[in-house]
């Protein structure tokens, strides 16, 4: 915690450059209390973490209950300094009594408020939803910034995103903060591949070069993204074959065997990314769907896919979008590759055009 109440019920913030000697003097002469539970706090002044307030070991505060890491404290302080540098009206850890929550920072921007949450520790989806609903109840817009991943590269690429990061994706964007380098890192135009893998365009910027509201604009490079997608699709097929341990008992290879399909000859229009996030790679369910249609099965395709593989749950919207694409670009289901421009246009339509239309 960087904020506390004094004995006179005045708020005090550890956001100014006070020397450790001065803080040690203050600790000897003043007592501090939690703004939420009003229990006495300890002013900690150590060698590793920046000075901060903390509850005593056996106390249980419902609002300030999370143990704070050095990374979280330093990140919160860096974000505060960044906003202050831009003369933004910003509060540190204000206690919102009506919803019993306290954001890391609360910004007033003209006639609206923005709650900035720098998240470093695990957070369940249920708790995330509860926090967001609390802010929405007060008309406050939440802005979640996750801690930076261990490594970061700029440009079009495939990345692994753990569930911790996936839950902070909003409008196909993920914002993270590298505390050590004081850099904001944006993953934009996120396209789900399967599982934890995403295709994205990433960019970083020093925080003090970035105005608020954020203006991290990353162009959608259609051709590069389509080429990267096809490379990822090829990688998936190679690994699928290499690590297959069930032979034709595997539903994917059984389908290929029954329909005399060679993976090397699989046309590039099978395996188009879907805007619906699914656990299965699109090349698998789209191959099955194509085989059904070529065999004359055109009704209740979602159920047909489920019976083919009972771990799949392919919604009608994803099926309809893919069928529309195929009927438009390859109505005869010709077993040939499409021009890469056709694939890039479809990716753009699903991931960019529809986002702005909505």
Keywords:
about 350 residues, alpha+beta, 8-stranded mixed β-sheet, 5-stranded antiparallel β-sheet, 10 helices
Q: Explain this structure to me?
A:
The chain has 358 residues and is of the alpha+beta class. It folds into three domains: 1-65, no CATH class; 66-219, Trna Endonuclease, Chain: A, domain 1; 224-357, no CATH class. Helices cover 35% and strands 21% of the residues. The protein has ten helices and 13 strands. The protein has helices at 20-29, 70-85, 125-137, 163-166, 222-242, 251-258, 282-294, 301-308, 316-329, 340-357, and strands spanning 3-6, 11-13, 32-33, 40-44, 52-55, 90-92, 105-109, 112-119, 140-147, 155-160, 174-178, 183-194, 197-206. An eight-stranded mixed sheet has the order 6-7-8-9-11-12-13-10, with helices on both faces. Helix 7 packs across helix 8. The longest helix is centred in the middle third of the chain and has 21 residues, at 222-242. The model has no long low-confidence stretch (mean pLDDT 91).
């Amino acid at each position: 915690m960087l904020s506390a109440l004094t004995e006179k019920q005045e708020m005090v913030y550890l956001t100014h450059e006070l020397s450790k000697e001065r803080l040690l003097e203050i600790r000897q002469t003043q007592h501090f209390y939690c703004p939420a539970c009003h229990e006495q706090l300890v002013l900690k002044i150590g060698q590793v973490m920046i000075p901060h307030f903390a509850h005593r070991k056996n106390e249980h505060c419902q609002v300030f209950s999370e143990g704070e890491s050095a990374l979280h404290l330093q990140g919160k302080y860096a974000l505060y300094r960044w906003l202050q540098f831009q003369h933004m009206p910003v509060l540190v850890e204000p206690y919102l009594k009506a919803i019993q929550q306290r954001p890391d920072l609360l910004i007033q921007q003209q006639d609206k408020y923005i709650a900035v949450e720098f998240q470093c520790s695990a957070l369940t989806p249920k708790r995330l939803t509860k926090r967001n609903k609390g802010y929405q109840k007060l008309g406050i817009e939440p802005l979640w910034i996750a801690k930076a991943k261990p490594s970061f590269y700029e440009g079009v690429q495939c990345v692994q995103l753990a569930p911790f990061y996936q839950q902070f994706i909003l409008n196909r964007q993920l914002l993270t903060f590298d505390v050590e380098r004081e850099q904001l890192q944006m993953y934009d135009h996120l396209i789900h591949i399967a599982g934890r893998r995403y295709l994205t365009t990433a960019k970083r910027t020093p925080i003090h070069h970035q105005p608020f509201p954020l203006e991290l604009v990353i162009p959608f490079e259609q051709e590069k993204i389509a080429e990267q997608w096809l490379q990822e699709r090829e990688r998936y097929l190679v690994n699928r074959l290499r690590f297959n341990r069930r032979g034709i008992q595997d539903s994917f290879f059984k389908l290929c065997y029954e329909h005399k399909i060679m993976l090397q000859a699989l046309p590039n229009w099978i395996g188009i990314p879907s805007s619906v996030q699914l656990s299965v790679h699109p090349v698998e369910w789209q191959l099955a769907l194509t085989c059904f249609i070529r065999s004359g099965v055109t009704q209740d395709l979602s159920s047909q896919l489920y019976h083919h593989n009972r771990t799949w749950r392919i919604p009608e919207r994803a099926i309809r979008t893919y069928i529309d694409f195929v009927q438009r670009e390859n109505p005869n289901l010709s077993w040939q590759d499409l021009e890469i421009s056709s694939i890039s246009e479809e990716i753009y339509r699903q991931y960019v055009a529809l986002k702005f239309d909505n």
